[in-house]
Design goal:
Elements (H helix, E strand, L loop, with lengths): L8 H8 L4 E3 H6 L4 H9 L4 E4 L2 E3 L9 H16 L4 E2 L1 H7 L12 E3 L13 E2 L8 E4 L2 E4 L1 H8 L5 H13 L5 H13 L19 H13 L5 E7 L5 E12 L2 E8 L7 H15 L4 E7 H4 L2 H15 L10
Parallel strand pairs: 4-8, 5-6, 11-12
Antiparallel strand pairs: 1-3, 2-3, 4-5, 7-8, 9-10, 10-11
């Protein structure tokens, strides 16, 4: 797609931060008036996905394409309804939740729960957020606990738990907020999904770790511990393990979940190798490593872990050593 020469750089910078989208008001503020916007659209340089909203096709090169797509959905929804507040999935995106699907369900709420017809694929939910909205990135969004409950209707269990894990890990929500989530979900008639909140664990440091843990929970062998620190007899720090099972008699099974970006550099691979060698040196620890590709075939992950646990005589609920 061609870029338009002579457009104000500050406007293009704004667009890159909004998934490529700008509003008519932002264009006016930067001197790009109606006549020029019409010419840009007619030439195919820009598109107009909704009334008063323009897609400049500018993109943030530092951002993953999936995140660019998610942010485009967020800003398209909010700019299509200028007085709206984000709810559900797009509110979770604004709060910094990880684990959301690539294509978000776009939902907003208008002041007083006013109804409006869908526009540009955006649904208006008739919910009054008075007293239940906060300002994020200059726009209003449902409070994180309420947004989690709203997203229970549209997300899968796994995506929802990944989002809740990440918000708890980032301290956007607290354990007390999860109590509120349960109460709000019960009032919303989502009793069948209340158990999702029981699966939330803020120690998970990535959606991949959450996904791996859920696969193990479903297979009947939930980890005994997460992010457990290991030290040698002299107290030297050896590493922190993602998922851990205590096999008894000082023996451990560790499952490490490697995100591609984090473990891709030679330096990081070297540090991982040293850390793993230190853990294995005593001969009492089994370390299994899994990457995102393994989670696309979850039976391979659970069968491998399950074989080790069965062979090693693992028992659930065994007291963990300090």
């Amino acid at each position: 797609m061609r870029s338009a020469a002579g457009l104000p750089p500050p406007l293009l910078e704004v667009a890159r931060g909004q998934g490529g989208l700008v509003s008519a008001a932002q264009c006016e503020e930067h001197g790009v008036l109606t006549s020029r916007r019409s010419r840009l659209v007619a030439a195919g340089t820009w598109k107009r996905p909704a009334r008063g909203v323009y897609d400049t096709h500018e993109r943030d090169a530092t951002m993953h394409e999936f995140d660019q797509e998610r942010w485009r959905t967020v800003w398209l929804a909010l700019k299509s309804y200028p007085r709206s507040a984000a709810v559900g999935e797009i509110a979770l995106m604004m709060h910094g939740a990880e684990g959301l699907p690539r294509r978000l369900t776009a939902e907003v709420a208008l002041p007083g729960g006013t109804y409006a017809r869908p526009r540009a694929g955006v649904r208006v939910r008739q919910v009054d957020l008075h007293g239940h909205a906060v300002k994020v990135l200059g726009r209003h969004a449902a409070r994180a606990p309420l947004a989690l409950v709203q997203a229970m209707r549209t997300l899968s269990r796994d995506s929802w738990v990944q989002c809740a894990d990440s918000l708890l890990n980032k301290k956007v929500i607290s354990a007390q907020d999860l109590v509120e989530v349960r109460a709000l979900a019960r009032r919303a008639g989502l009793v069948a999904r209340l158990h999702w909140a029981d699966l939330v664990d803020g120690r998970a440091e990535s959606p991949l770790e959450t996904e791996a843990r859920l696969r193990c929970v479903d297979a009947g062998f939930p980890p005994d511990d997460l992010q457990r620190e290991f030290r040698d007899g002299e107290g030297k720090f050896l590493g922190r393990a993602d998922l851990v099972w205590h096999l008894g008699d000082g023996r451990w099974l560790i499952a490490e979940i490697d995100g591609g970006a984090f473990h891709s550099s030679d330096d990081q691979l070297g540090r991982d190798a040293v850390r793993q060698n230190d853990l294995l040196e005593g001969g009492r620890t089994i370390v299994l490593r899994f990457r995102s590709a393994h989670l696309r075939q979850p039976q391979g992950l659970t069968e491998r872990i399950g074989r080790v646990l069965t062979r090693s005589g693992w028992q659930p609920g065994r007291a963990l050593p300090t």
